[in-house]
Amino acid sequence: MLMVTAIAPVNIAVIKYWGKKDAQKNIPINDSISGTLSTDVMYAKTTVYTSSTLEKNRFWLNGEEQVFEGTRIHSCVCEVRSKSDETLPHLTWNLAICSENNFPTAAGLASSAAGYACLVYALGALFKLKDELSSIARVGSGSACRSMYGGWVLWQKGTSSMSNDSVARPIASHEHWPEMRVLILVVNDNRKKHPSTIAMQNSVTSSSLIHYRAKDVVPHRIKEMHLAILTKDFRKFAEITMKDSNQFHAICLDTYPPCFYLNTVSQAIIDLVHAYNDYKGEHVVAYTFDAGPNACLYMLEPVLEEFTSIINYVFPQPADIHDNDYFRGL
Ligand code: 2P0
């Protein structure tokens, strides 16, 4: 009997991944950059157990058993096994996999990124595989390859849809920008109504803006964002982050039929951030929204207290919800 438990944190993209060249392997049409949260905040925890006596493969998510055969979880297991040392005695034993998130699942808060990164890391430890874990995590869920690393991470689209060089790599460590903080404002923790895998395929086939973005916007933005992170230029970082989030949601509207991820509360948060930045005379807070209405706000430590108090004033919390469910630090 062997058992491995791993934890992987959520990552929040500042240059978004949206659209695939190859839907089977999750090869993206553009590069993306994200920040990985620290391991004690929002994370997935996965335990992989194997024994010669297990009768079949089984998988539980947040305590409920799920289908295993034919799923992306199954594909990740097959990928790790196919690259592992075939003389390992436990390579062919069945697996019991238990995964849980300490935050809302599938609410547009990168739960699949943390979940698949965690699974692949645990499988790698179980089957003694160290290389290629980023590209295997990518097969599970594109953005998962970025959660394989801490700090600031670049996921390269790779050179062709057939190649396996679409991998994530760290560009700066967590310690590089220790003043950086993230507030997560949970506007709605329901499952998203347009799963991102399907929605981004619809965008690729129906939006013209997505192709302009991938070809003419993202390459330049990636260079600018990389430099802003390396030089800790928060103003530039914030401007690009907000513009990229807005362009991603413009593509969602340009998709036919459109997908609406932002709601009126999300829009009020966007207005508030711009009003606060205007009041400060520079960009001190940056919003970014994934495939859901929940806001991820990047800011530096000195701004955190004042901005949090404004959020509390403008969006009073229900009395029965503890602060920590709303405000999370990087
Ligand atoms: C991102 N998102 O860069 C973007 C921004 C959502 C909006 O990566 O189909 O769950 O599993 O590869 O990774 C969500 O997409 O999609 C995502 P699949 P994934 O974070």
UniProtKB/TrEMBL annotation:
According to UniProt, the reaction catalysed is: (R)-5-diphosphomevalonate + ATP = isopentenyl diphosphate + ADP + phosphate + CO2
EC top class, as a word: lyase
What's the EC number here?
4.1.1.33
Q: In Gene Ontology terms, what is a biological process of this protein? A: isopentenyl diphosphate biosynthetic process, mevalonate pathway
Sequence ranges assigned to domain Diphosphomevalonate decarboxylase-like N-terminal in this UniProt record? 8-168
Start and end of every Mvd1 C-terminal domain? Answer: 182-330
Q: Which GO terms describe its cellular component?
A: cytosol
Q: Does the keyword Lipid biosynthesis apply?
A: yes
An example Gene Ontology molecular-function term: ATP binding
Supply the alphabetized keyword list. Answer: ATP-binding, Cholesterol biosynthesis, Cholesterol metabolism, Lipid biosynthesis, Lipid metabolism, Lyase, Nucleotide-binding, Steroid biosynthesis, Steroid metabolism, Sterol biosynthesis, Sterol metabolism
To which pathway does this protein belong? Answer: Steroid biosynthesis; cholesterol biosynthesis
Functionally, this protein is described as follows: Catalyzes the ATP dependent decarboxylation of (R)-5-diphosphomevalonate to form isopentenyl diphosphate (IPP). Functions in the mevalonate (MVA) pathway leading to isopentenyl diphosphate (IPP), a key precursor for the biosynthesis of isoprenoids and sterol synthesis.
| Family the entry assigns | Belongs to the diphosphomevalonate decarboxylase family.
Task: Show the NCBIfam families listed in the entry.
Answer: mevDPdecarb
Q: What is the protein name stated in its UniProt record? A: Diphosphomevalonate decarboxylase
- Per the UniProt record, the source organism is Rhynchophorus ferrugineus (Red palm weevil)
